Task: structure prediction
Amino acid sequence: METTMQRITTAGVLFESGRYFVARRKSGGQIGGLWEFPGGKHRWGETPEQSLAREFMEEFNLPVTVGSCFLLHDFVHKQTLFHLRAFWVEPVGPVRYELNEHEEARWVTMEELLELPLVPSDMAVRDKLEELSLA
Result:
């Protein structure tokens, strides 16, 4: 049986005034052009919270405070088992961002989020948010 590598990856949900912050990946590759919650792969020596805060800075130049984890979801991609951790995040100050890694970013309602083509790993995050918003 082949050994699967394991990695932690993060997704940050910024929610303000009934809308979620999402970004569209640059074209190219398997998931190019798809929408996602900001986040990314965890680096050795970081906590998932630290890696998520770093990703927001790298991708959007947007400082955030990472709150509680509301979803743990495992998925396999290219022989790697990913442990996705989804966290609530809060902006530090007014939300001003730059697009360093994405083609576009927008604030969407749950209805709009359900219409967007998301990266496969973030569908579990969206489903959990939908469940929470109905609770």
Q: What stands out?
A: The chain has three helices and seven strands.
